[in-house]
Amino acid sequence: MQNLIEVFHHYAKNEKHTLNKEQMKQFMGAELSGLCKNQKNVESFDRMMKDLDFDGDGQLNFEEFVSFVAGVMFSCNEIYVKRREQPAKGGACQVTK
After folding, report:
1. Structural domain tally of the chain?
2. How far is CA 97 from CA 57, 78, 79, 87, 89, in A?
3. From start to end of 16-89, where are the E strands?
4. CATH code of the domain covering residue 41
5. Do 24 and 32 touch, CB atoms closer than 8 A?
6. Considering the domain boundaries, does residue 19 fall inside one?
7. In 3D, which of 43, 49, 47, 52 has the Cα closest to residue 22?
8. What pLDDT was estimated at residue 43?
């Protein structure tokens, strides 16, 4: 939990302790690069920011940021569980128990 707080404040470098679009892009590029390497669509990024911005101020506060992180974690967990449930096919990327 402490790491999540520290990461947020590392990128939220303003007096309001919020992330603007550029800071969110920096966060995603540095911390989620494996998940975002194929995500180049500016429109989808803008839509995501708008959907996460519950209070409509154009910035993400900590609560909105945590909502994003929770969504990413939920999606990653679903993928992880599906991969674990698949029979092993001898490929290079296997989840071991």
Report:
1. 1
2. 45, 16, 15, 12, 15
3. none
4. 1.10.238.10
5. no
6. yes
7. 49
8. 87
